[in-house]
Amino acid sequence: MRSWLNCRTIVPPDGLAEAYRHENVDANSWLYPKQVLAHWVDDHRTIDIPEQIRDAYRRVGRPTPLTRARGLERALGVAWRIFLKREDLLPNGSFKICSAIPQAFYGAAEGRREVVTETGAGQTGAAAALACQLFGLAATVFMVRSSFDAKPLRRRLMEFYGATVHPSPSDVTAFGRHQLATGNSSGSIAIATSEVFEVLRGGGGMNIAGSLLDFTLTYNSLLGLETIVQLGVEGIRSEVVVGCVGGGSSFGGFAIPFVEQDDDVEVIAVESDAIPTLTRGEYRFDHPDGGGQAPPMRMYTLGYDFRPPAMHASGLRYHAASPIVSYLVRAGRVRAVAHAEADALAAGRLLARTEGIVVAPEASYVVREVVERVQREPRRSGTIVGVLTGAGALDLDAYGEDPSA
Ligand SMILES: Cc1ncc(COP(=O)(O)O)c(C=O)c1O
Fold first, then answer.
1. pTM attached to this predicted model
2. Angle value at C-alpha 54, between 52 and 60, nearest 5 degrees
């Protein structure tokens, strides 16, 4: 792929609150490389991908495969063709490398030496650690403490790529110590973000944004663009596309290329019913970080001080959703649904038994919705594509005992 789709151009000029972009770009100029900030305010439909970034994508295994899930189709007894976009096959374990590579590349190109970033289940951190290794940057990761404790192998993977990893809340920052003192020890992505801000204010380093911000959707547009090409080779057009939403960067990057080229495509965003941002949140200005320090953005939110419950799909534990994705939901172009974790994990088990694919708990929400959607019209011979955002081999404990075994 020679260019990204600039995902914010899907929104009409009056659709996004322009102030948020420019205020955030100004407020974040110390956090992100200049070229990344330039992409945040870019108005062109597409953005060229430099050869060095295209080379790094090839090295980690992009484009990722698109798999027809015939075993799942047979098990469900439906007439649908089910396709799955395989971000789970990337070496770091998830799609997150798609936006970590350009951020690390642009940072290294302007002389930055160190990345400090936050991670939920460890997927953003693993991607950041790998991207830093590719471009010679040091990496420090604040990992949500509930995941730090529950997923020691993901922490080891980050360390294996050369990163230093702290549990968040940590005793490294004043904000972290305050959270620990007030009894909030399980943490959240929003709290980890505030810890990262505090460390970076000390100077020098940069952040790799894991999600939410417009440019993360743009860099992730390869998920959708590649899928469209892969389906096109088979002469197929997808009628339904499904992705899951934490901050919305994988969903936006996957779905928006489809939305842009096809007015009729049905687009479904899946979230956790324990953090029902898109289905039950308010559409208003709110802070993206748990400390309420960053300038507000207009988006669906449960409130920046919402403290999500601990859960296995910790990449979905975020109080708000990307302003672009929020706009598309608000405009009625994207339908949001919420599933319970037990139902999602059951669908993840079904996928393993029918396809041999072991997905991250977050991606099992996508599988759950794909199954429900095709079962609603079992005799329709349509095509549906879901994005498997990550691998689950390091999350097998989440699946626990199979009640049907
Ligand atoms: C495997 C996986 N899927 C999905 C998500 C949610 O991603 P996003 O914030 O882009 O919605 C995450 C976030 O960490 C993840 O690790």
1. 0.95
2. 105
DSSP secondary-structure letter at 44?
S
Task: Determine if ligand 1 sits within 6 Å of the CB of residue 250.
Answer: yes
Q: Please indicate whether residue 321, judged by its CB atom, sits closer than 6 Å to ligand 1.
A: no
Q: Which atom of ligand 1 is nearest to the CA of 189?
A: 14
Beta bridge partners of 86: 388
pLDDT higher than threshold 80 for residue 308: yes
Strand 138-144, strand 164-168: pairing: parallel
Lowest mean pLDDT among 20-34, 171-185, 313-327, 348-362: 20-34
Handedness of CA 352, 358, 363, 364 (dihedral sign): positive
First to last CA, the chain: 43
d(CA 74, CA 146): 38
Q: Which two tokens stand for residue 254?
A: 């996957």
Contact between 273 and 261 under an 8 Å Cβ cutoff? The reply is: no
How confident is the model over 5-10, as a mean pLDDT? 97
